[in-house]
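User: Could you go from structure to sequence for me? I need the amino acid at each position, not a summary. Structure tokens:
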């Protein structure tokens, strides 16, 4: 009898899991904007991971700095990210909303485009810089990509009904976990390939990152504001 109850319980869990999967897929399939935003979250994470994974390896190898000195650049990047999240993004958001009279959606979209452009420029600068000076500028600019994921989350809340936010955030967390797991092998392999090609190609992983973030920029251009009535209908359909 206990085994029967256990079997029924397991069956119910499987059925519930399949129903949740079907419901989630229906939600995503009905909203192309959300799929674009999830893709943007993954690409943003790739860009951020490139700096985190390779900075302390790349700088000593290409510019003949000691590991200890390269650590200061890591601290510099972290400081820029903190300044960005605490000061720059809130101030820029306030400026766009209050002074330029943009909607919340257009504010986030503008910040996303600017952040992608700055981060792409930084990745190109870091990947191509022949000397440490331009590389430091590249690190600073790349650090401005720290706000990309938070901007994507903010955009996501404008395209999904409140009842479905937790589901989409869970999917976004899964996407970020997957991209973080893939970023290590991707950037390590491209770095090894760059070493074999010669010193000019040592920064190949950052050129790849620049391409991914540039694609993020392009996808952002396709994000359109969703009217509240349509959001409510989507949420109601999903709940039914």
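Assistant: Here is the amino acid at each position, in order:
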């Amino acid at each position: 009898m206990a085994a029967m109850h256990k079997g029924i319980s397991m069956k119910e869990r499987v059925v519930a899991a399949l129903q949740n999967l079907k419901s989630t897929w229906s939600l995503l399939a009905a909203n192309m904007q959300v799929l674009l935003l999830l893709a943007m979250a993954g690409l943003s994470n790739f860009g951020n991971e490139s700096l985190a994974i390779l900075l302390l390896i790349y700088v000593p190898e290409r510019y003949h700095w000691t590991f200890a000195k390269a650590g200061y650049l890591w601290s510099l990047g972290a400081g820029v990210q903190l300044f960005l999240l605490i000061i720059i993004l809130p101030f820029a958001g306030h400026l766009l909303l209050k002074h330029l009279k943009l909607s919340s959606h257009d504010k986030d979209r503008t910040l996303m485009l600017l952040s992608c452009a700055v981060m792409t420029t930084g990745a190109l600068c870091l990947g191509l810089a022949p000397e440490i000076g331009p590389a430091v500028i590249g690190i600073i600019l790349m650090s401005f990509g720290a706000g990309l994921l938070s901007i994507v989350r903010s955009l996501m809340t404008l395209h999904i009904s409140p009842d479905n936010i937790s589901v989409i955030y869970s999917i976004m967390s899964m996407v970020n976990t997957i991209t973080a797991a893939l970023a290590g092998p991707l950037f390590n392999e491209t770095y090894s390939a760059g070493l074999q090609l010669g010193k000019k190609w040592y920064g190949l992983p950052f050129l790849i990152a620049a391409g991914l973030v540039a694609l993020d920029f392009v996808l952002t251009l396709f994000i359109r504001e969703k009217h509240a009535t349509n959001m409510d209908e989507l949420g109601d359909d999903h709940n039914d």
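One structural detail worth keeping in mind: Residues 67-99 form the longest helix (33 residues).
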